[in-house]
Amino acid sequence: MAVINPWSKRMVPVIGILTAKKKDGTIAGNGPLFIELQKKLISLNGISFIFTLDGVHADSIDGFTYIPEKDEWERINSPYPDLVYNRIPFRKSEEEITHSGFFSRLKEQNIPFFNPGFIDKFELYRLLKNHPALHSYLPATISAIQKQKLMIFLSQYQSVYLKPAQSARGNGIFILNVDSQKRIHLKGLNKCEEFLTFDHFWQEWEDLLMKKNYLAQEEIKSLLYEGKRFDFRILAHAENNQYIVTGVGIRQSQKQDITTHVPTGGRLLPYELLQTEEHDLFIHTIVKQIGEALSEQFGFFGEFSIDAGISQSGHYYIYEVNSKPMSFDENEIEERKIDHLCNLFLQLTGYPDI
Length: 354
What we know:
The protein has helices spanning about 30-45, 90-100, 100-110, 120-130, 145-155, 200-210, 275-300, 330-350, and strands spanning about 15-20, 45-50, 60-65, 70-80, 85, 115, 140-145, 160-165, 175-180, 185-190, 190-195, 215-220, 225, 230-240, 240-250, 265-270, 305-310, 315-320. The chain is of the alpha+beta class. It has 3 domains: about 15-115, Rossmann fold; about 120-140 and about 220-325, D-amino Acid Aminotransferase, Chain A, domain 1 (2-Layer Sandwich); about 145-215, no CATH class.
């Protein structure tokens, strides 16, 4: 298709959505999200396009814009947008664009962008552990790359989660526990292993723990609903210099108790089924505090999601914070997400009255 430039006069806010390419050269990312954002922006007299690092030039960007009337993507060349929304799906790709200096160029041109990047789980833990209000909601966590520390930690808690510091969607998670005979049991989504001693376990797993920079986190005995554990999935967005709750869903384990993620067999429950004033207060409080802490430490976060839960003793816990939230299966939450994102785009680009 011919290269077009429909926005040279800058009469509307232009949002650039930054993504990456797959190994086969095709565009990666959440296509349905990009399409819905474009439709909503057009209704607000705005427009968007998607692009990757190799489309960035000194004074323009090659990308693609979705044309609803044709239900297809068209190739475009655009001046730099009014805002960049970071939806790069791969950590390696994000490292490449960080090293390219593109984010620095945006800062020099006063072009707002979010989110700064993926969140390392241990960096997040250290940030929240030093927070005066949030530290009490964290499960005990250590780096799992030192044999002696991990052995003592496991002996103290008996059952711990092993998590890669840079992963999402429950990938690479295991439960490690020790029985009364000091045997070590490792349980994952697709494998179970038993070791006679911790030394045997360490001998086999040391390389992977080091390579993936694993963390160990105490296993929290979750409050149950109908005999199965559940977590809160919380979506949050920035709005008018504060952070608000966009939606809350419940994820409940079914076939296994390692994670509650739907792709690994978990099921959805409506938040209203378990909603209480105490839950509401906890959720709204941590959204505000986490949003402020993230943006102060790493740069502006326009959105994030939180995995949280409550123990059998009634104590709340924060398990994960994700800087690039997956799509929620609840349609109403997804619709609110589109609304909040587009309103935020307009606020940050100086078009709040459009």
